[in-house]
Design a protein that fits this description.
By secondary structure, the protein is α+β, with helices and mostly antiparallel strands. It is built from eight helices and four strands, in the order αααααααββαββ. It has two domains: 57 residues; 103 residues, H-NOX domain (Alpha-Beta Complex), CATH 3.90.1520.10. Helix 2 packs across helix 3 and helix 4 packs parallel to helix 8. The longest helix is centred in the C-terminal third of the chain and has 16 residues.
């Protein structure tokens, strides 16, 4: 597993629950250090132990923790760059949703060896949308559920999201019902970086 994923889990635990909880999780994971290097690769078993240790320490199911991780990746000030990258997907939530079809290719331009979940979104006959998420590590769909909730808030959209499990192909399925595109004001966003 790419170190950036393990590092994201580390930062989520540390920034949200404190350095003492992270120290306990790192000790339980037993990966030979107290911090992950973002540009290294780690055996998948380390990531599985990391998720298990974090869920035990936080007394949460792994799927709930992964959803919280997804929310953190978009909403916490320490990872503002991810939010900015996602907001380049469009001016409205609907545009952002359909930009997810290209996220894997865009991510490979920046980090060719990072395994990004393969995302596909399409509109259903009833006007709802289906997002499929496929990754070698099961459960990434729950992180995407958190990302989608946080991005809906970011855009000011009112959505109903539901993780609907796995297909036989291994894809996780998320149902998205966009109830109102402009429900609230949303967070401010400027495509150009402001000079300070």
């Amino acid at each position: 597993m790419h170190g950036m994923i393990n590092r994201a889990i580390q930062c989520f635990v540390r920034d949200t629950y404190g350095p003492e909880i992270w120290a306990s999780v790192a000790e339980q994971t037993d990966f030979g250090s107290d911090s992950f290097e973002a540009m290294l690769s780690y055996p998948d078993g380390v990531t599985i132990r990391l998720l298990s240790a974090a869920a035990r320490s936080l007394e949460k199911p792994v799927d709930a923790m992964l959803e919280d991780l997804g929310t953190y990746l978009v909403s916490h000030p320490n990872v503002e760059a991810i939010r900015r990258l996602l907001r380049f997907g469009g001016d409205e939530f609907t545009e952002f949703m359909f930009s997810l079809n290209e996220i894997e290719g865009r991510s490979r331009l920046a980090l060719p060896d990072l395994e990004v979940p393969k995302l596909n979104i399409f509109e259903n006959e009833d006007g709802s949308h289906t997002l499929t998420c496929q990754h070698s590590m099961p459960g990434f769909g729950y992180a995407m559920l958190g990302v989608m909730r946080a991005m809906a808030d970011d855009y000011g959209a009112l959505v109903f999201l539901e993780h609907q499990g796995w297909r036989d192909s291994g894809e996780e399925v998320i149902n998205i019902q966009l109830l109102e595109e402009a429900f609230s004001e949303g967070r401010s966003f400027d495509l150009s970086a402001k000079a300070v």
